[in-house]
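Can you give me the bound-state structure? Components:
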Amino acid sequence: MSFRRIRIVVLLGLLFATASLTWLEQYIARGWKGPLVVELVPINGDRSAAAAETIAALKADDFSDIGDFLEREAARYGVQSGTALKLTVEPALAAHPPAPPQGGNVLATMAWSLKLRWWVYRQSGQWLPEIGTVKLYVLYHAPEDGRGLAHSLGLQKGLIGVVHAYASPRQARQNNIVIAHELLHTLGATDKYGPEGYPVYPDGVADTTLPEDAPQRAAEIMAGRYLTPGGQLTMPASLAQCVIGAKTAREINLDGAFARQYAH
Ligand SMILES: [Zn+2]
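Here's the bound-state model for the whole set.
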């Protein structure tokens, strides 16, 4: 074989391996047969004392409302999986994940996504990729008045989330909403808000029996916000005020899991 041919075969092999890995990890993560395994890796996002302090005090229990949320919502779709989430807090990491490219260049985004997967693999310190384990990198930032955080993201390929969170106990519940949102992205859920941040109707509202402009009492997790009686777009107080809508449930395979559970 010529060198060129060998190169093509190797590249095709790599592509095939990556595609099979993606298929396998999605099959495991979206099966809802056992708890979803999540490794949360804290990172000091701005090298601040506040972030260092928050990270030092982190424990798995701080994220227990994410598990409660998943269990409650899975049960609502008829999936009884017992413990829905097995989350561990890993030692803090000094390195930052590669930042996503600015603008919507498809090639740049693809290159960055590969770079991020490679970075995650290198950081794991393992020889083999940890298939089926969701990796959530949470970058903590000291809260500063009037300064927003960079966009959090969740990638289905590689089961990777990069979450920007506030280093403040008062923000813990809201951080957990963002973490749950990105976690569901890794399982295939899509965003359900429009360009202005308004929930897409009906998929992005909690109670779809209400008309489009009606105030809601809870938010659909992939919309992230809801309309209050005053017509304000508001973030829910905690995951107790969030639901998984029917479309999101389909996207993360909750209905598939239900069908399998009662197939025989
Ligand atoms: Zn999103």
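A couple of observations. The chain is about 35% helix and 15% strand. The chain has a mean pLDDT of 91.
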